[in-house]
Amino acid sequence: MSYLRQERAAKLAMMESIAASQQALARMLHCIADISSYSDSTAKSLAENIRLLTQYQGQMAFVISGIEWQRQHYGTPSLPWFNEACDAVWYAVRGVLEGSE
């Protein structure tokens, strides 16, 4: 087996391992939902540990594959920006559609 094939096989095995681990983390989060009714502090601690594990796995996946997971962005989204040249087309189509009803 060539070096390139061995490298790809190792990367694939690592990605499969990360995917299986993510499934296990999802099951843990499901269990945390049950635990949270009994102990809020324990649930928060477990959730923080799972968050850190997920970040670690995301970095491992990035190193292996070069594909970065999407980061979550918090805040209020701004209004969509449209090119002014597209406005005329949008209004023309809108007028046609409204007139046909």
UniProtKB/TrEMBL annotation:
What is the protein name for this chain?
A: Uncharacterized protein
Q: Which organism is it from?
A: Paenibacillus lacisoli
